[in-house]
Amino acid sequence: MGPVRLGLDIGATKTLGLVLADDGVIKAEVREPTEPGADGVVRTAAKVVDALRDAVDEPWTGPVGVGVPGLVDVERGAVKHAVNLGLDGDWVPLGDLLGDRLGAQVVVENDVNVASLGAAALSGEDDLVYLSIGTGLAAGLVLDGRLRRGVHGAAGEIGHVPVDPMGVYCQCGQRGCLETVASGSAIAAAWPSTDLPPAQALFAAAQAGDEKAIAVRDRFAVGVAEAIRVLSLAVDPRTIVVGGGVAQLGDQLRAVVAAALLDQAASSPFLASLDLAGRLRVVPADRPVAAVGAALLGR
């Protein structure tokens, strides 16, 4: 049996770790609730890695890869503005802190970037945009097989492109950003739910014929389509993959976004020729793309 790699996807509610073989087979997975704060994040991650080591009696090579929300300085392995993790002050040297705890090298990357790497690996595509629709809205870019971070690490921050000068204020300080209409938090604000996740509740109500739900769902779909259109016109990827928490809706999500893309292209032969709806894919619910991408970081 060949060597394996370890990858962690650290989120606000859970940390998912996995062991990945060189042939792409996932050998083990472990989930733990994420404790907030620097000490809590390190403690949770270490617990997951210890459990993975116990689960797989095989040598592992290379660094432990970590995907984490927020602004990431890849060279230093430092994280900032990961508010949902309780890391909202100065730079936190997460790579060093976790490396000292594990006795191993740790490579840290933004969670959407590692998810785009995972999506590329699992799909076999080397030219794609990964659009993550979770609490916020952001994209990862894998272009000709290479991850594009940007000079300031801001490549793919599509959620903060303003589209409505009269829209609500965004947490970034601008007004009417795409994230305010095309994200999980936007759905939660427009369609609050106590018994189901808001996106599931909204789509179920729309499916049942609720006119208000249909209007909210369709406005959300138009916002996602606008994000895809902007990204596609900027970098023209071969494939557009939608992931993140809202992507748990699966083909329901793909269908309404594809319909919005087709509607936008109906009056534009140019847009129609690009076939954006035909390039659209949704990550299957059982594919842990972020953890897979994290495991590939040291490659």
Automatic annotation (TrEMBL):
Pfam families: ROK
Gene3D superfamilies in the record: 3.30.420.40
InterPro entries referenced in this protein's UniProt entry, alphabetically: ATPase_NBD (IPR043129), ROK (IPR000600)
The family this protein is said to belong to: Belongs to the ROK (NagC/XylR) family.
Alphabetized PANTHER family for the sequence: BIFUNCTIONAL UDP-N-ACETYLGLUCOSAMINE 2-EPIMERASE_N-ACETYLMANNOSAMINE KINASE (PTHR18964:SF149), ROK (REPRESSOR, ORF, KINASE) FAMILY (PTHR18964)
Protein name: ROK family protein
Organism, scientific name: Nocardioides mangrovi
